[in-house]
Amino acid sequence: MVSRDTKETALLVTVAVVGFLAANALGAPSAVAWAILIGVGGVGPTVRDEWRRRQDA
């Protein structure tokens, strides 16, 4: 069984990849596309996990 955190992380990574591909397809600067990928797919799950840990404490 997959945990809730894993499902949410997978969702954020999927959204990040789709956003990255959409930004590239629309001709956005590469810095914007990479910011979407790293911000939503990398930093987003980390911030969400840290926020949850602080809520539990």
UniProtKB/TrEMBL annotation:
Pfam families attached to this UniProt entry: DUF7987
Protein name: Uncharacterized protein
